[in-house]
Amino acid sequence: MEARASGAFPLPSGVWSDQHVATFLHRIGRWAFRRRRLVSGVRLGVLVVAVVAAAMAPAGRFGPLADQRAL
């Protein structure tokens, strides 16, 4: 891939350059790797909450999609 010249396509205010995005993603990845047990625990916790919420959700009012008619 060809690198852009710094003045070829000026970015609007508030838009990050490719280098800023790459640096940001690298820092997030490094933080997540160093704290991988915490990240795994948070992901597992979110999964448990999602499963519990799905189990507690009320059943739908309608049967299978094939049985539904246009209202």
From TrEMBL:
Membrane-traversing stretches: 38-57
Swiss-Prot/TrEMBL keywords: Membrane, Transmembrane, Transmembrane helix
Domain of life: Bacteria
Name this protein carries in UniProt: ABC transporter permease
